[in-house]
Amino acid sequence: MKRQDVKGQVAIVTGASSGVGWQSAVRLAEAGVRLCVTARTAQALERLRDEVLQRGGECLVVPGDVTVQEDVERVVRECLAHYGRVDVLVNNAGVQSYGLFDALPWEHITRVLDVNCLGFMRFARGVLPHFRRQGRGHVLNVQSMLSRGGAPLLSAYTASKHATLGWAKALRLELEGTGIEVSNILVPSVDTNMFAHAPTLLSRAPAPVPPTYDVDVVARSVVAAVRRPGRTRVPVFLQGRLILALDAVAPWVGQFLLGHFGARMQQRDEPVERREGNLFQPMTRSYGPHGPVPPTPRWKRYSATAGLAALAGGVVLGVAGLARAAR
Ligand SMILES: NC(=O)c1ccc[n+]([C@@H]2O[C@H](COP(=O)([O-])OP(=O)(O)OC[C@H]3O[C@@H](n4cnc5c(N)ncnc54)[C@H](OP(=O)(O)O)[C@@H]3O)[C@@H](O)[C@H]2O)c1
């Protein structure tokens, strides 16, 4: 698809009070996109609006909960009343809950699916009638590497992200030829407050599966997707294209590493801040783009990349060798 001029376009960004949503809103505003930002925490959204205005952008704040149909309709309505249009929906609001599947409270499982999966669908249904009338529009979904793979302790989250990617694929097919685009971003671990926000059944605080990247890599990918819609983007190499390639040729590598070390990798030596997390009530203290776990230093990422690339190369050569021997 041809690169689009995004200046003056109007985007609704959900989950904008923190992390990926916050940073994407800032980067979109810098690119000239006019914003309607939403999440439950009005105070954080107002701080975001101040930052956007300082950078010369436009920002309408409409607080709301993605699990509440009336809130979703109100956000879309107020955006249309204010700007007269909406061009892009950045579906981003997300939650997770840490614990073994059979120990997770049932209401955590249903809530994670409600926010991450039905929340995306509610907002898409909110904007699609307007997109159809305009003959153009863009549903941009902030997905996860766990839309493809899996991680222990995150079964409900993984299920929600697989479901949302499947939904997005079907939606893209239905919208073929309408001028309405669907994009996805497969987000790696990034340094947001998600790991301070998530409820956990474990005694230690949650941590992202390493390596962890600066959230700005995702925000820049969001802007790139608004410029060139319609693709599924993988913004990084190591916890992105390389892992996906390795998973295609030797899925047992990821199975072994995450099966044996995944649970330990996803905990840090810090006490749990608020055990019930942000599932049902927002955590008002932690907003802004960055969270408690800093990005992995570059040298560590490069060493891991070299190691995994060598392993992937070895697997490919081994398989090729076996195939030759069998002929
Ligand atoms: N961080 C990572 O490593 C990572 C990796 C892969 C994918 N992702 C994806 O990136 C997206 C954003 O996550 P993040 O890392 O930025 O997490 P975050 O810092 O915890 O932000 C989550 C956002 O979702 C909002 N939210 C939560 N429940 C909501 C509800 N019921 N209604 C409306 N808004 C709600 C929160 O705002 P309020 O609490 O104010 O409502 C907040 O703005 C998610 O879709 C996540 O799956 C993140």
TrEMBL record:
<protein>
    <submittedName>
        <fullName>Short-chain dehydrogenase/reductase SDR</fullName>
    </submittedName>
</protein>
<keyword id="KW-0472">Membrane</keyword>
<keyword id="KW-0560">Oxidoreductase</keyword>
<comment type="similarity">
    <text>Belongs to the short-chain dehydrogenases/reductases (SDR) family.</text>
</comment>
<dbReference type="GO" id="GO:0016020">
    <property type="term" value="C:membrane"/>
</dbReference>
<keyword id="KW-0812">Transmembrane</keyword>
<dbReference type="Pfam" id="PF00106">
    <property type="entry name" value="adh_short"/>
</dbReference>
<dbReference type="InterPro" id="IPR002347">
    <property type="entry name" value="SDR_fam"/>
</dbReference>
<dbReference type="GO" id="GO:0016491">
    <property type="term" value="F:oxidoreductase activity"/>
</dbReference>
<dbReference type="InterPro" id="IPR036291">
    <property type="entry name" value="NAD(P)-bd_dom_sf"/>
</dbReference>
<dbReference type="InterPro" id="IPR020904">
    <property type="entry name" value="Sc_DH/Rdtase_CS"/>
</dbReference>
<feature type="transmembrane region" description="Helical">
    <location>
        <begin position="302"/>
        <end position="323"/>
    </location>
</feature>
<keyword id="KW-1133">Transmembrane helix</keyword>
